[in-house]
Amino acid sequence: MRTRIAEQVLEFAFPAGTSRGVYTTHRVWRVEVQDDTGRVGIGECAPLPDLSCDALPPREYRAKLEDACAELARTGEIPAGSLREYPSILMGLETAVQHLRAGGWRLWDTPFSRGEEGIRINGLIWMGDFPTMLERLERKLQAGFKCIKVKIGAIDWQREVDLLRRIRERYSPQQVELRVDANGAFSPQDAPARLEQLAAFGIHSIEQPIRAGQWSDMARLCRESPVPVALDEELIGVNDPARKAELLDAVRPRYIILKPTLHGGFRGAEEWMRLADARGIGHWVTSALESNIGLNAIAQWCAARRHDMPQGLGTGQIYTNNVAPFPLSIRGEQLWFDPAAAAPCTELNAFLDDWNGPAECITVHTSGSTGEPKPMQARKEFMEASARMTCRFLGLREGDSALLCLPLRFIAGKMMVVRSLVAGLRLIPCEPCGHPLRGLQEPPDFAAMVPLQVFNSLQVPQEAEMLRGIKNLIIGGGPVDDDLAAQLKKFPNAVWSTYGMTETLSHIALRRLSGPSADACYTPFDGVQLALNEHGCLVVTAPHIGCHNLATHDIVEMDSRGRFRILGRSDNTINSGGIKIQPEQVEETLRRNGLADVLLTSVPDPKFGESTVLLTTADPTEAERICHSCLPPYSIPRRILRVPALPLTPTAKPNRPAAHRLAQSNI
């Protein structure tokens, strides 16, 4: 088992006030564990400054975390005994191992994790000035929350009382349940009178009215308070089971509030649950300001146990740089898990199961650019050879991070996984989408994208900066047009356009797009032999990946060194009146002259055999003007058809068969 630690500083979307102070940032440590099959598990260690019993200085904390990870890697077991005093580390490792075992973000199989049920949560009103708290309260009530938790103890007490009065003037206890959290703000002397005032508003419970560690005073409040008392901070640092029982027996609270990050990880929280149940003490679960990784783990762990009361799990929207996309969302007063958003990890582990199975071959599908996607069998040994070829060419090293943002149904996605396996890369799976860098905290060392993903990323400043930071970026699945190539030429790191297909198990040649060595020609990998057939099409021989005289439909120009430039495809060639027109060349010329979305196809013609039709999303009059300004007469489309969107394959390539059918049905 291998482990890796990544540090991140989460940025609050607003100053998060408590009676102890205001949080604006939160330093967390992400732990990744990977087993010998390539499966990955991710957990989060998120100690809170001035609160967690293990909130050490960052350097000391990381050293302890590194020791725990080393022990986990060596033995395959979490060193739980030595981590009792480090609950946030324990929870992070528990989450990572559970993620690894589950094979995806569905950590426990429950109606919640299947997307069948939500978890009812309270609406949290953070401390602030009176108008701000009132505004936050109104938003929560309008959203449909029937349980509201208000942080108190930081502003003028009477103003806080006025806020609670406002709620009760509009909503009865039967309509809205009110909880308050003092975070230890009251003194033992002031607390009784303030609890009497709170009782007038039908308060469900108060969390931690006085500072932790005052057991006798807290026990008295629990006996005498007209408002039920819940312990929260009181549990922090009480990690020995005997000491836990002693605390509950001495104080006898009505409730305890469980935060695995603070209260012993999942194991420690379950100890608290069992002890509380044995004494008739109620409990509910809340987060401790974790990012979505920790919040997801706590929510799913909670859902695997009874959760009759509203839980405190609504903190997923408090950070500007939270982990996204993520399968958690709030609808009304419930937290939901979306299994579809967790699909990338599920698909990855399904592929790894196939890869580690006894079969010698893996089923892959062609891209569908010349017809319907078709399944084919690829030998694992050839896929490994192809992966080594790429990793060797790019100089990828063990431990480098690799972003998986392409669909695993097709060869490009599968080969990213295989490269990570043969080279020991750290794979980062994300949803195959138009903005794959959104939500990442640092650029990966290696990524493979289609041109549309690169184009979209360049439109968002933060994503563009992340894109520029990728050390090796390969782009395939479609042509890189001149405008995009011009932008990529300025990139400081290596950017490559790939040449290959499903039959060659991804690419067998690359051309440099970035820097002074940018090139118009593709250079084949070592061991790849190229030739031209009588039609001017490329023929590929590469025995180590199972290719023998593979005749492609790509028409190319080749130099004496075997480097080549693609002119078009023979199966796309349009023969109009005896003149052969290559659609790719016409389309590229139009793009260079300002007509971006174009696709050239043809329809049968009784006089010319084939008649050219240009599909475009642009104004037909403007399209016609550009065509006449930059194309030779024989290449000017005979007809122009405006369409809402160009037909594309699932891998974002031009769908030329669909374009042909579309033209025929509309001309």
- The span between the termini is 61 Å
Shape: elongated
Report the count of strand segments: 31
β-strand percent reads 25-35%
Helix content, binned percent: 25-40%
Query: Helical stretch count?
Result: 18
Question: Can you describe this structure?
Answer:
With about 675 residues, the chain is of the alpha/beta class. It is about 30% helix and about 25% strand. The chain has 18 helices and 31 strands. The protein has a 7-stranded parallel beta sheet with strand order 5-6-7-8-9-10-11, covered by helices on one side. Strand 12 and strand 13 form a beta hairpin. Helix 2 (about 85-100) crosses helix 8 (about 265-280) and helix 11 crosses helix 12. The longest helix is centred in the first third of the chain and has 18 residues, at about 60-75. The protein starts with a strand and ends with a helix.
Produce a short descriptive summary.
The chain has 667 residues and is of the alpha/beta class. It contains 18 helices and 31 strands. The model has no long low-confidence stretch (mean pLDDT 89).
Topology of this protein?
Layout: E1 2-18, E2 21-34, E3 40-45, H1 58-75, H2 87-102, E4 119-120, E5 123-125, H3 130-142, E6 147-151, H4 157-170, E7 177-181, H5 191-199, E8 203-207, H6 215-224, E9 229-231, H7 241-251, E10 255-258, H8 265-278, E11 282-285, H9 292-303, E12 328-331, E13 334-337, H10 343-355, E14 361-365, E15 375-379, H11 380-394, E16 401-404, H12 411-423, E17 426-429, E18 446-449, H13 451-458, H14 461-468, E19 472-475, H15 482-488, E20 494-501, E21 506-512, E22 523-524, E23 529-532, E24 537-542, E25 547-558, E26 564-569, E27 574-576, E28 579-581, H16 583-592, E29 598-605, E30 609-616, H17 620-630, E31 639-642, H18 656-666
